[in-house]
Design brief:
Layout (H helix, E strand, L loop, with lengths): L1 H17 L14 E2 L5 H10 L3 E7 L4 H10 L3 H10 E7 L5 E3 L5 E3 H7 L7 E4 L10 H4 L2 E4 L4 H12 L11 H14 L4
Parallel strand pairs: 1-3, 2-3
Antiparallel strand pairs: 2-6, 4-5, 6-7
Helix pairs in contact: 4-7, 7-8
Length: 192
């Protein structure tokens, strides 16, 4: 019985270290998320200046799938480093009141932007191109969207597929085919 209590105490003391940091808005925070004025045109410019891709993470307080991503997937070194090295990440709150400026110049709350873009579920990630015309919204300009929580391999493959601009290639390897190939390569040991 003593061993049980010692094990339980060890687990309880380890829990705060395993938990993702929560901000005042109740959303999980990572070191690679940017705190910006949420003018998406400016954020895109900064991302381009840094040689990175802009990704918009739409999340909400209490989202169990957001928690899964922030506690199980994003902390993995290969995922975290890839995002940090290649992406300029701006987090938006599905129900937030913070003002943002969409690419089309409209100033609206985060929750109004989410409705405008037709986003219903969290997490959702919008991957932006390097250039967006001033008549486009974030949703209409996005080169890809990742709706929901996925495993580390799928997440890393999506970020890689977008970063390598495979959506532009003339091949027939859409994301699903790319991801299936990457799974096979990992099983065969022919990739990292």
């Amino acid at each position: 019985m003593k061993r049980f209590w010692m094990t339980l105490m060890a687990i309880l003391f380890a829990l705060p270290a395993l938990a993702a940091e929560l901000g005042d808005d109740g959303l999980h925070k990572t070191e690679w998320m940017r705190d910006t004025f949420k003018d998406l045109r400016e954020d895109l410019g900064e991302a381009n200046d840094e040689g990175k891709r802009l990704a918009l993470f739409i999340e909400q307080r209490g989202c169990i799938y957001c928690t899964k991503m922030h506690t199980e997937i994003y902390p993995r070194e290969e995922v975290s480093s890839y995002i940090s090295d290649n992406y300029f990440v701006v987090q938006l709150n599905l129900h937030g009141d913070t003002e943002i400026t969409d690419f089309d110049g409209e100033v609206l709350s985060e929750k109004a932007a989410a409705r405008k873009w037709g986003l219903l579920f969290t997490p959702s990630i919008l991957f932006m191109p390097e250039e967006v015309s001033e008549d486009q919204t974030a949703q209409s300009a996005a080169v890809a969207m990742m709706p929901g929580a996925f495993g580390a391999g799928t997440t890393l493959d999506m970020f890689t597929w977008v970063n390598e601009k495979r959506y532009e290639l003339d091949s027939e390897e859409d994301f699903q085919r790319y991801h299936a190939r990457r799974i096979q390569e990992r099983q065969d040991g022919s990739t990292d």
